[in-house]
Amino acid sequence: MGSNPTPRTFYGTLGCGEALGRVLPFGLWMRKQGYPESTIQPCVRALKAIAKRTNLLNPESVKAYLASAELTENRKEKPADDLARFYRCKQITFDRPRYRRIEKLPFIPLESEVDQLIAGLGRKTAIFLQLLKETGMRAGEAWNLRWNDIGYASAAITITPEKGSKPRRAKISSQLAEMLQQRPHSYECVFRDPTFDPLKSMGHFQRNFCEQRRQLAERLQNPRLNGITFRTLRHFKATIEYHQTKDILHVMQLLGHKSIKNTLVYMHLVDFEGDEYVCKPAKTMDEAKVLIESGFDYIADADGVKLFRKRK
């Protein structure tokens, strides 16, 4: 015991166990206030981490810790928000530090890279990514997808929203519908066992995806694949959709945004003018249908065939 002075050094009169004990009732308070579990659990984890390093009930001590932490201002903004909630719950005055968030445009991969990643993953992960690519769903929305949400006749999915989004429906390709039908129907949820905590099981699934992605990127010698995350595919879908329709309200509805401010970024996200395209002809209605479902845009008629193109 004498060889480990850390609790006294960091907490003064407040022991580590007591500090952590203050966090759990805060989680219950958040639940009573109506916060979703997807907000509560990361918040509680962040506060526990801070409580192991400084006196959580001393705002000035916490601010000093954040100031010295080797984190970007973007990464400090989230724990500062968590702390503001915590101190509001404890009725402790907290002068929230000002962190200037640096907005960055998200990484948008080529569609060929997205398809390359999907093709190289395990079956379950590949279907999950194909779903995100086609619908722009949040990963949590896809993780909670139920079989009853899938309309095979209409080739559409009903999306139960998270993070304050709007409920919506999204069209899916016949290829994805077939992939989903081939999934085992062991549970009411398409991807997860509902008897397990959804956030913990999602975390395990995401870590497994990251490892598969890393191995594939090394094998294909394409480090850009490591930049493709679940969220990347939501950005990818929104960007492509705006490029094809030039309708920002359509993209807003697709993503389930309640404020158009969150959608406007996609108007300037990528300049497609210098991109290369794959062009394909369609002689029949069935061929044209397959191309459209694969993301090709109709361009013109020439020599009795319809020409379509898609960004590489």
List keywords for this structure.
about 300 residues; mainly alpha; hpI Integrase, Chain A; 3 domains; three-stranded antiparallel β-sheet; 13 helices; 6 strands; about 50% helix
Summarize the structure.
This protein is mainly alpha-helical and 312 residues long.
What's the helix and strand layout?
Blueprint: H1 6-11, H2 16-32, H3 37-51, H4 59-68, H5 73-90, H6 111-119, H7 123-135, H8 139-143, E1 150-151, E2 156-159, E3 168-171, H9 174-181, H10 198-220, H11 230-245, H12 248-255, E4 277-282, H13 285-293, E5 297-302, E6 305-311
Antiparallel strand pairs: 1-2, 2-3, 4-6, 5-6
Helix pairs in contact: 2-3, 3-5, 6-7, 7-11, 11-12
Describe the protein.
Helices cover 50% and strands 9% of the residues. Helix 3 packs across helix 5 (73-90). The chain has 13 helices and six strands. The protein has 312 residues and is mainly alpha-helical. The strands form two sheets. Strands 1-2-3 form a three-stranded antiparallel beta sheet. The protein has a three-stranded antiparallel beta sheet with strand order 4-6-5, covered by helices on one side. It folds into three domains: 6-90, no CATH class; 111-267, Orthogonal Bundle (hpI Integrase, Chain A), CATH 1.10.443.10; 277-311, no CATH class.
